[in-house]
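An example makes the point: we print one protein in full, the chain in one-letter code, the fold tokenised, without further comment:
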Amino acid sequence: MTATATRPRKRSLKNIGRAPQDTRGSWHTYLGLAAFLALSAFPLYWMFVIATSDDEAVSQIPPSVVPGDQLMENLHEVFTMQQVYFAASLINSFIVSAAVTASTLFFCSMAGFAFAKLRFPGRDKLMIVVILTLTIPNQLGIVALYILMGKFGWNGTLVSVIVPFLVSAFGVFYMRQFIMQAVPDELVESARMDGALTMRVYWSIVLPAIRPALAVLGLLTFVATWNEFQWPLIQLNGTPFPTSMVALSDLASGNYVIYRRVLAGAFVATVPLLVLLLLGGRQIVRGIMEGAVKS
């Protein structure tokens, strides 16, 4: 009785290193992504349409989808209103957002480095406290924060809008997780053996390794601070130079709201964020992907 031996199937050298299947999306995928993008961008486009139109375009049925030719006139009304100093409000928003972003990047990266690579008593318990603060709504501390700002004499000033947000729990947690993955312990120990102090390790080793994460955190912080409305409204409402979001609420106040004027101001306040996201969008994707693939 003869047994037939099964020969192993030969693998072609052409298939080595190739993906087992085609990973390109079908036309259904691209069509769905295009539809989702169009639906997401339509509110911004319609805001631009109303900002360039007259009062009749707001109540027009069906809604107008073609931009008008009155953008400059509407912007002139926004920037020349006596009740709202919109140009100064944009400058204040930039000052607050830039100060909060710079402070958040500095303090959160230092705190993240301490929690990730330094050994001190109660480190893990303190990290748990930081994480638990993320579960507390900001509205619960508004009254106490307002009283505290009043004790310092900061109510009604930009300082009261900047100081409470100099550091964030999310930023500390995010930087800690990224530093744990991006900076090996051996690299830190070798630097210490060469005589580098803690600040030297942070400045020369940690910061260059976490630049993508800093870009992500900086963009998210700047956008969130620019769009902050509740706390600036409490602190700066009634002052001649509030932030841009408070100025927009002043534009929308009154018995009769002129929507073309409000949306023209909203368009101007949105342009800096769009430019920032377009310039730094690749950094956001890069930072997220690097944090996801590192082990």
About this structure: The chain has two domains: 29-69, 79-293. The longest helix spans residues 259-293.
